[in-house]
Structures are given as C-alpha cells and as structure tokens.
Amino acid sequence: MESEDLIKLMEEVDAKGIPWEKVEEEIKVSHDLLKLYSNSGPVPVTIINNLKKFLEAHSS
C-alpha cells in the first residue's frame, strides 16, 4: 500500500483525538514505526487494514 493511505489514517486518528498508546496497543505497531513507514515507502497491507479496523471500531 502507499504511504499516502497511511498518512490519511494517521491524520484521522489525530483528528479524533485517540491516544497513540491505545492505537499501538490494539494494532501492535508502534507510532514511531508508523511514522517511518509514512515517510519511506510501501506500507504492509496488514498495518493499513488493522488501522482501518481500529478506526472503524472507534468511530462515533
């Protein structure tokens, strides 16, 4: 997946005010690693999918 997809999802987390500690705990990926992927290139599909599922579960 493209890093732009990850950047959009990360912005959505920030916009909702969800603490990154909670995101890290549920998707099992550190915020630092997500930032690295957003700056460097292809993002594993599992990370994108897990972040999407997390956001869907926490949308209200």
Structural class of the helices, strands and pairings? mainly alpha
- Helix content estimate: over 70%
Shape: globular
Q: Write down the overall mean pLDDT.
A: 94
- Tell me the fraction of residues in β-strands, as a range: under 5%
Query: Which parts are unreliable, with pLDDT below 50 for 5 consecutive residues or more?
Result: none
Order of helices and strands: HHHH
Q: From the alpha-carbon coordinates, what is the Rg to the nearest angstrom?
A: 10 Å
Count the DSSP helices: 4
How far do the termini sit from each other? 26 Å
Provide the number of structural domains. Answer: 1
Number of strands: 0
Sketch the major β-sheet.
none
What does this structure look like?
The chain has helices at residues 3-16, 20-27, 31-40, 45-57. The protein has 60 residues and is mainly α. The longest helix has 14 residues, at 3-16. The radius of gyration is 10 Å and the shape is globular. 12% of the residues are buried. The model has no long low-confidence stretch (mean pLDDT 94).
Index terms:
single chain; 4 helices; 60 residues; globular; mainly alpha
Draw up the topology in text:
Elements lengths: L2 H14 L3 H8 L3 H10 L4 H13 L3
Summarize the structure.
By secondary structure, the chain is mainly alpha-helical.
